[in-house]
Amino acid sequence: MKIDPREATQFDLAAADQMEKIISDLGRMYQERNEALQEVAHAHHEALFLLAVAADYRDDDTGVHIVRIGFLAEALALRLGQSKAYALLLRKAAPMHDIGKIGIPDNVLKKPGGLTPKERQVMNQHAAIGADILGKSRIALFKLAAEVALTHHERWNGTGYPRGLAGADIPLSGRIVSVVDFYDALTMDRVYRPAFGEDKALAMLQEQSGKAFDPTIVDCFMRHQGELHDLRKRITQSPMSFADLVDSTPADL
Ligand SMILES: [Fe+2]
Ligand SMILES: [Fe+2]
């Protein structure tokens, strides 16, 4: 607030000084509050990330699968023409897709061999449980993570779960994560089978185009398969962690 000193009374000048001080105090308090909120959101994110690692422990005791899912989802979103901001948010959200497995009893989760229809039903609840764990927040990251958790088992042709959504009714985040999750799971060793080779995995992905997966996303994946394969390999060779995942610089894709 600028006051012409020739017209100002002593009182005006004192009031203006006071006002400036209040404004600067408010500015500082606002900044401190934002920093504190960011710290809380970061701690919340880290806790949920660790929960996601724990939920995935049965399939992958290194936790690298879920980190790869983050980076592959980001890369694919960018290749699909999505904004950097969306792709970055998806990188952080996608690793939490299976967090709901934490709520599935061990006798189902760890059962070797096939599940009975009843057990399959229990297992499928991980999507809704995950959305429940993540969806309580108003923060954009956790809202997107809840959307991914809820929709990553929907299928393009409507035969998925939990809601049987079809086509573009399935949020883009779920459609992208289901593709990278399928690809990454095929190309890693599992307790019940060795990893499929790259060509076999790509053929299986292509085979599901228009059935399980959005054909546009599968086409995009196929066009960029070399880069995506290299990205996957790079992450496996120098395992990344939570810190890399939340680093806000876009990945060198
Ligand atoms: Fe899942
Ligand atoms: Fe997964």
Which key features would you list for this structure?
0% strand; binds fe (ii) ion; elongated; mainly alpha; 253 residues; 12 helices; Hypothetical protein af1432
What report would you give on this structure?
Helix 2 (64-79) crosses helix 8 (172-186) and helix 2 (64-79) runs antiparallel to helix 11. The chain has helices at residues 10-55, 64-79, 84-93, 106-109, 117-124, 126-134, 140-151, 172-186, 198-207, 215-223, 225-237, 242-246. It is built from twelve helices and no strands. It is elongated and about 85 Å long. With 253 residues, the chain is mainly alpha-helical. It has a single domain, classed as Hypothetical protein af1432, CATH 1.10.3210.10. It is 62% helix and 0% strand. One fe (ii) ion (FE2) binds next to helix 2 and helix 8. The site of one fe (ii) ion has 6 residues, from helix 2 and helix 8.
What order do the helices and strands come in, and which of them pair?
Layout lengths: L9 H46 L8 H16 L4 H10 L12 H4 L7 H8 L1 H9 L5 H12 L20 H15 L11 H10 L7 H9 L1 H13 L4 H5 L7
Bound molecules: fe (ii) ion (2 copies).
One fe (ii) ion (FE2) binds next to loops.
The small-molecule ligands in this entry are: fe (ii) ion
Broad CATH class: Mainly Alpha
- Based on CA atoms alone, the radius of gyration comes out at 24 Å
* CATH superfamily descriptor: Hypothetical protein af1432
Order of helices and strands: HHHHHHHHHHHH
The overall pLDDT average reads 90
Question: Largest sheet at a glance?
Answer: none
Q: Any idea what the shape is?
A: elongated
Structural class: mainly alpha
* Residues in β-strands, percent: under 5%
Distance between the termini: 48 Å
CATH architecture: Orthogonal Bundle
Tell me the number of strands.
0
Helix content: 55-70%
CATH topology: Hypothetical protein af1432
The count of helical stretches stands at 12
* Poorly predicted parts: none
